[in-house]
Amino acid sequence: MRTQSHHLLAVCATVMLALPALAACAPAPTPVPSHTAAATDAPVFASDEEALAAAKKAYAAYLETSDAITGDGGKDPERIATFVADDLLNSELQGFAGYAAEGAHSVGSTTFKVSGVQSIESSGALISLYICEDVSGLDVVDATGATLVSPSRKPITPFEVRFEMGDNSLILGYRGVWEGGNFC
């Protein structure tokens, strides 16, 4: 029995020592082709500063259009479609429908400032920002002109927003109230 154990141990040791050598004799694995950069993969923006400026411009256009729709009592809400991704469009349209259902409209405008850059993808096609949105200059009123805004409304809200490339420009792909510490 002892001889068989030594023999088995010798065979195992030989196999273990031979495996790396056998692997070296095996043909090299065929490399998987990696994605090669095409002309369409060129950076969208020349610099991060240019990407940030485009994101600010896109958000300003989004807010201006949103304020116009709420100012019109939620009429023609599809105007926002130019500025948001399909995933966000439905929730935007539902929000505007609330204005129409309540006979409410807004007066004034929303402003914002960029508090920080979360990320800018190297191609510039995805940009995430921390934004402080200020509604202190915006009132929501009913058909009689009475305000519907709660006196306890906080005028500045922190948002995380993400932009993606649309057909020819940045569009808003995500917009959510920041749940972490208030950076505004």
Q: Identify the CATH class.
A: Alpha Beta
Strand content bin = 15-25%
| CATH architecture identity | Roll
Mean pLDDT: 80
Intertermini distance: 78 Å
Low-confidence stretches: 1-39
- How are helices and strands ordered from N to C? HHHEEEEEE
Spatial order of strands in the largest sheet: 2-3-5-6
Portion in helices? 25-40%
CATH topology: Nuclear Transport Factor 2, Chain: A
Using only CA atoms, what is the Rg? 29 Å
Overall body shape: globular
Number of strands: 6
Any idea how many domains? 1
Tally the helices: what do you get?
3
The class by helix and strand makeup works out as alpha+beta
The largest sheet, given as strand count, sense and whether it forms a barrel, is: 4 strands, antiparallel
